[in-house]
Amino acid sequence: MSLKSKLSITLFVSLSTLSGNSVSSELNDKLPRATKAEQTMSFWDLPYLDGAYISTRPEKKSDGIEVGDLSLVTKNKHEIIQLSNEIQSGKYGLYDSLLISHKNKLIYESYYRRSRVDLPTGQASATKTLTSLIVGIAIEQGHLTLDDLHKPIINFFEALDKSKFVSGVEKITLHKALTMRGGLKIDQDIIQKLEKFPEKLKGQKYIQVLLEHSKPITDASQKFAYGNFNDMLVMHVLDVVLPEGAEQFIKKELLERLTIKQFEWKNSLSGVPEAGWRVKLTSRDMLKWGSLLLNDGNWEGQQLVSKAYLNKATSAIVDPLDTWIPDNYKYGYFIYQADISIDDKQFKANFAWGGGGQYVISVKDLDLVVVIKGHDREDKILDAVLKTVLPAFL
Length: 394
Description:
Layout: H1 3-9, H2 15-18, H3 36-39, E1 53-55, E2 66-67, H4 70-73, H5 77-89, E3 95-102, E4 105-111, E5 121-122, H6 127-140, H7 174-178, H8 188-195, H9 205-213, H10 230-241, H11 245-255, E6 263-265, E7 279-281, H12 283-294, E8 298-299, E9 302-303, H13 307-313, E10 329-331, E11 336-342, E12 345-354, E13 358-363, E14 368-374, H14 382-389
Parallel strand pairs: 2-4
Antiparallel strand pairs: 1-4, 3-4, 3-14, 5-7, 6-7, 8-9, 10-11, 11-12, 12-13, 13-14
């Protein structure tokens, strides 16, 4: 293939030409795919790519994703390419992919370091947004209602011995749990002791243990507290109300519907699917559930997630109180929101966020979905990406 032909498919430019950073002078001209050895390797053992892969005309694959051409939708592609140069140079830390979808077409695809197009990697806490979407699917199919979100979760568990619960458990609703305000508080030493006997945590026994060993639930305890068993409370309700259980529902009604074939979704000690981490997906497949956020829960002409639920889930319900969360971030149902100012205009971004730099970002007013993956401890890339990518689509 001639260099001219390569250029028509992949932007084949020397990164070192774009800046003075000492980065690789080579770009991969083929999508980086995992070797047989890499498919079973720990993420932390994956070797770094020899150079970045950057495509302004992504390849069409049999994964249900439509593709387009960045050059046809923006004149600012060089700023985005420069951003990729900076990612590769390590300016923002250790990041592995940046993908951009516009009007439901993948128009920019780039991989660095440990990313492979066909290798599912950890979502970290971005998994919580997936759990929220599953709630929305359950509502759309009639297994839950919007009113159910405000009922005590103990109403869903008939097999529990309610006489042993601490006081105030009736204050815990799906609405509270989805906004990190369930209010459970269990001493760490008690948790460690309980986890030594996993057979006592199977199924609904897990909820029994939590509601027995927590400190009393009060209005004061029901403040925003990230994690704190909230995601698993939600998943256990789903496991009870879904006829085939949560695991089969996730596979059939989320993953298969989105043509997600390469994934890993581990179960918790209780035997139900994890709700807040231990899920692996490819960067391309992350775009798909970003599309659900963008399109009000619609997928290929069918309403997959309840639109009414998503309207609530993506609203600013609470102000996160943890010091590591930026002041301008708001929180809905396991989904963050932030207002981004570009050229004196305000744009609302809804996004999933997982530790190390896992992001699925939806900006409805610009018809954009942006995916970022990384393994960076500081995780400070989001502002740079939004302030570079969003102006290109004004």
